[in-house]
TrEMBL record:
Record-listed 4-aspartylphosphate modification sites: 52
Pfam family, any one: Response_reg
PANTHER family, sorted: RESPONSE REGULATORY DOMAIN-CONTAINING PROTEIN, STRESS RESPONSE REGULATOR PROTEIN 1
Keyword vocabulary terms for this entry: Phosphoprotein
Domain named Response regulatory: residues: 3-117
InterPro entries: Bact_response_regulator, CheY-like_superfamily, Sig_transdc_resp-reg_receiver
Name used for this protein in its record: Stage 0 sporulation protein A homolog
Keyword Translocase: no
Gene Ontology BP term (one): phosphorelay signal transduction system
Keyword Phosphoprotein: yes
Stated role: May play the central regulatory role in sporulation. It may be an element of the effector pathway responsible for the activation of sporulation genes in response to nutritional stress. Spo0A may act in concert with spo0H (a sigma factor) to control the expression of some genes that are critical to the sporulation process.
Length: 127
């Protein structure tokens, strides 16, 4: 069972992402701000954190910074409306593993998440 935490202050976007990724192999959790996301990471230990950059209380970058080495094997995908190359570079430098610009299509998100879990399971099999 894969665990996915969606952190975004827009309820409609959380709903869209949740509905897109919901299947029998996933447990999906939601956080409305960065502080709640951080708390849920420690409580639920998700495999994937889908994290908006601009949120109340803590930004996506601040959540990643606070996690530090506690990130473990969890993968982080940052969502942002900013699509400049410098924004993508900042996301990767912050410790995010993946980057997706808003707006995005549900199929693009689904493909990206499926690829993340396929890559992750292949690496585990090699160990």
């Amino acid at each position: 069972m894969r665990k996915i935490l969606i952190a975004d202050d827009e309820i409609s976007l959380r709903f869209l992402i949740s509905e897109t990724l919901d299947d029998d192999d996933s447990e999906i959790y939601q956080a409305k701000d960065g502080q709640e996301a951080l708390e849920l990471v420690y409580e639920k230990k998700p495999d994937l954190l889908i994290l908006d950059v601009m949120m109340p209380k803590l930004t996506g970058y601040e959540v990643i910074e606070k996690l530090g080495t506690d990130k473990g094997n969890m993968k982080i995908m940052l969502l942002t409306a900013k699509a400049q190359l410098s924004d993508r570079e900042k996301a990767m430098e912050s410790g995010a593993d993946y980057f997706l610009t808003k707006p995005f299509s549900p199929m693009e998100l689904l493909d990206k998440v499926d690829n993340i879990f396929q890559l992750h399971s292949k690496k585990e099999e090699e160990l």
